[in-house]
Amino acid sequence: KLPQKVKIVEMGPRDGLQNEKIIVESENKVKFINLLSQCGFQAIETTSFVSKKWVPQMGDASEVYQKIDKVPNVSYPVLVPNVTGLDQALKVDVKEIAVFGAASEAFSQKNINCSISDSLKRFNEVVIKAQQNGIKIRGYVSCVMGCPYEGDINPLKVAEVTQKLFEMGCYEVSLGDTIGVGTPEKTKDLMQALSQFDFQKLAVHFHDTYDRAIPNILVALEHGIQVVDSSVSGLGGCPYAGKPSGNVATETVVNTLNYLGIETGIDKEKLKEASDFICGLLNRQNISINF
Ligand code: HMG
Ligand code: MG
Known about the structure:
The protein has 291 residues and is an alpha/beta fold. It is built from 11 helices and 9 strands. The chain is globular, with a radius of gyration of 17 Å.
């Protein structure tokens, strides 16, 4: 049974841009986010408070966050890997953060330079301080259906990290198929391994490297998940994920859900405007062209 409504969390400004070689000027990031704010999203992941040396494109996090128009009832979460990042986010009055862990030891090392258990200790410090400041915390688990370095991942490992993130105080955990190797069968196995959790508190974050994100999302929705991360025009990919692999395109998700009679609240015309703008800057083919 499919849900009646799905919340889409737009990833374009963060996951969409973090791996782009062309550095987008801060002012244009602000325009892009302001255009997205008109589309009807309830949440737009805005930027990352990570090391500039590791992810140069996100080096202007404070400036971008400060300059965007914050539309009431839209949240603007940002990625935060440690207390250093949180302190910078606090200075610009961020209201929601996301900590990002992994179900793969090798990916954790490459992505955030520490083991899974060390990352959980760091996140715990972040969460405590964030909660003291009244900030909402989302959690990510990467490599839920496979890792670029380790290959197959045991879904029970995903369940273990998910459990830790909930125990810490994350209000939602987003399941990242970081490199898009998931299949409908693997998605089903993953959902079964997570059956102890409240599916209203889980989200899916699927990259579309092999064009399987949509069938995989549908399996997740059939299991009761109602939150989907996607990126306008399918921009994006993690710099530590090897082969370039964008997020599933927001346009494709909206079209598919509309076709199935599932409400998203997204204005397609406005979405096309945001997509045209960013694709123009990045010299990319705009997938909303036939949208
Ligand atoms: P590190 O080098 O191990 O950290 O990096 P450190 O604590 O040893 O510090 C080294 C230097 O970085 C110091 O500066 C720190 O001050 C600075 P120096 O003394 O050399 O001048 N530093 C920072 N600067 C700014 N912001 C910070 C920060 N922390 C330390 N927060 C660290 C560890 C986590 C910082 C680093 O590995 C990093 O920034 N990694 C970036 C990871 C990243 O952004 N990955 C992409 C996002 S995750 C993703 O895309 C997956 C997802 O989409 C889900 C999915 O698809 O699966 C979420
Ligand atoms: Mg991602």
